Structure prediction request, 250 residues.
Amino acid sequence: MNDLVSIVTPTYNSAKYISETIQSVQKQTHSNWEMIIVDDCSSDNTTDLIKDFIANDNKIQLHQLGSNSGPAVARNKGIEQVAGKYMTFLDADDIWFEDFIENSINTIKETGIHFVFSSYKRSNENLEFVHSDFIVPQKVTYSDILKSNSISCLTAFVDIETLGKKAMPLIRKRQDMGLWLQYLKEIPFAYGIQEPKAIYRIRENSLSRKKSNLLKYQWQFYREVEKLNVFQSTYYMVHWMYRGFMKYRN
Prediction:
């Protein structure tokens, strides 16, 4: 497959940002990629913008869901279409630096670790860096991710030729965390690249910043997805709450 990289991008009413996201993919120094965009019934002109790009770039695909189904279904629809050696994700309002793909592949080849992820810069909606960079740990294990999900969808990069293609759990929140844990049950750790290689856009209404709204989903994840007992769930919940507060204090 000559290092073909499959990029899965779910979209929903992302007309304000999707062009910048696609352009950041087109500027990659590693040019052998396919971008699989799955639209979850947008009501704005998101799909029109995507079709304009497709008219000039046959490496971009658009798949449209029949009904609004949420990010897990959209990402899994994209995963079904993946044909590459590597699989990665990029949400429709985030941006990669030009060497993101090249650096991720080189890191896998140099380390022999088939699941890598990168640090990233954090901006507001206007791409102003009003938050500190998020620097990821160099290694994360299954237990580490249960305490704090330091692997963001915008930089996760998996050698699926080696580790296999897996789907996200069909839950309302924490689908990405569920996928990472599936891989980390089979490998000792994922490798974190210290240098920021992407921009995560923090929007004003971002649920990722409203941790109190996510408590019930996090608890359900421990109990119903990972099947942890009450003691284990409580232990990881305490860590998650503390680390979540620390992550967004700056």
In short: The chain has a mean pLDDT of 92. The chain has one domain: 5-205. Residues 151 and 180 are 8 Å apart (CA to CA). The longest helix spans residues 230-247.
